[in-house]
Amino acid sequence: MSIMVRIFSVLPFATGSICLLLVLVSLFGFASGTIEDEIPAIPCPTPQEGCPTGMSQTDLDVPLAFILLDVELEIEMEMDDQAWIGLVDSKYAKTCPPGESGLTNCTASDYEFLAAGPDHDGPIHLDLGPSSLRFVTGGDEGSTQLQDNAITTNWSVHLATWVEVLLAGGGLILCLSGVHMAFPSLTKRRD
Fold it and tell me: Is residue 55 within 8 Å of 98, Cβ to Cβ?
């Protein structure tokens, strides 16, 4: 009987070890990378309130499963001093639909920005959660030429903190129960 219990003790210990390994890998990140793209920097020779904006043609749909993950984006633009970029809810595609060129009939004041926008300077830091988003872009006041604007997006994926805590706790309990099953004399109280 004792040998069978010791053999079966490998299962909770192995499962707990896998949970702890997942937590360790998550601390460094499951994946990270860089995406490089170009968008037009829209001219805005008049005050910002009168300048048109551009919008991405498709939604960025973030599924509900992302509540288990911590997905971080950092977006940088080459022409940060002449253009801006922001994120809005995809519902704005109905009120401000982009044409074939991506331009809309709306100005920056027609949107409620979830991240960045015309008043934001520097890189955009965004934690993605379940939602449906669109990118909106425009030119800073005084920019007069339509130019290509290089965009660099750095991203990383980790498990959400609450998932890491659950996995670490569960993994530790499973490992300890596996040790207790294999070596019950180590965990018995001595009188």
Answer: yes
